[in-house]
Design goal:
Distance between the termini: 22 Å
Number of helices: 4
Structural class: alpha+beta
Number of domains: 1
Helix content: 25-40%
Length: about 170
């Protein structure tokens, strides 16, 4: 089940982010995220305040979290999108994180499918998201779900320097 996050979910979502950071630092996961830079507790608090933070629950535990909204980051301006659309027709998926011990069970795929239905229900036929070049697992997942890599933008992203941001899109 996927639902909007509530205040009681904050600590568990931060635990998931910290577990991803632990995996990154141990060389077990390659996301390109940096502890203390992105994502952080403030990422969760800001999304909760905007009411665009979602969680996936299995057996009464939060196993994944993501942000869904129509906020296109400034770096998207440097991408040559194949599907041009007015901003009000674009939905963006941000910061999809699955608790590392739960990875490989289809939670990310399920979240992306939910995101697509959420976008449709909000009148958005154009979907966008991003990941870093080094995140081969995410790139493979998104390609398998029909997302096209529109371009790669060299930038400082969410405070992380030297990012090669892969911009992905899909038209429903």
């Amino acid at each position: 089940m996927i639902r909007k996050a509530i205040a009681q979910d904050i600590d568990r979502i931060v635990e998931i982010y910290e577990a991803v950071h632990d995996g990154e630092e141990a060389g077990l996961i390659t996301t390109g995220w940096n502890r203390g830079v992105y994502p952080t507790r403030q990422t969760v608090l800001d999304a909760l305040e905007r009411s665009d933070l979602f969680v996936e629950i299995d057996h009464d535990d939060i196993v994944a979290a993501a942000i869904m909204n129509q906020i296109q980051v400034p770096e998207y301006d440097d991408c040559q999108w194949e599907n041009s659309a007015p901003e009000h027709e674009v939905m963006v998926l941000h910061t999809l994180a699955v608790d590392p011990p739960m990875s490989g069970r289809g939670y990310a795929k399920n979240f992306v499918r939910y995101y697509e239905e959420y976008a449709k229900s909000h009148g958005c036929q154009n979907l966008r998201m991003d990941t870093q070049v080094i995140n081969s697992a995410a790139r493979k997942l998104y390609a398998g779900l029909g997302y096209h890599e529109a371009g790669i933008v060299d930038c400082v992203f969410n405070g992380i320097p030297n990012v090669k941001l892969v911009c992905l899109e899909k038209r429903l």
